[in-house]
Structure formats: structure tokens, C-alpha cells
Design brief:
- The chain has helices spanning about 5-20, 30-55.
- The chain has about 55 residues and is an all-alpha fold.
- The chain has one domain (about 5-55).
- Helix 1 (about 5-20) packs antiparallel against helix 2 (about 30-55).
- It is elongated, with a radius of gyration of 13 Å.
- It starts with 6 loop residues before the first helix and ends with a helix.
Length: about 55
Amino acid sequence: DGRTVDARTIAAAARAAAAVVDPPQDLHADAQYRRALVATLVERALRAAAQRRSA
């Protein structure tokens, strides 16, 4: 729709995704770590999509 995606918008989306996920906790990783991982992966994916769109 013509709007640009900036770093602040991407970070907000990553935080929102981490806030709604309810990851399992086990001996490999606790829920807090997995939420942080979700935020990181969403941020990376959105940055990559924004780069592809602007290319």
C-alpha cells in the first residue's frame, strides 16, 4: 500500500510476535529464551522481506 517499513516498525512487530507466542519449556531452552528467539527470527525475516521489496 505504499507505506515504508522502518526499523521501529519491524522491532514493534518482533516484540508483538514474542508477546503472543506461548513456547514450551524444556531442558534445552526456557520459555523466555524461546520468546527472544521468536523476536529475533521475526525481525530478521521482516528485514529480509523489506530489502527484497526495495531491490
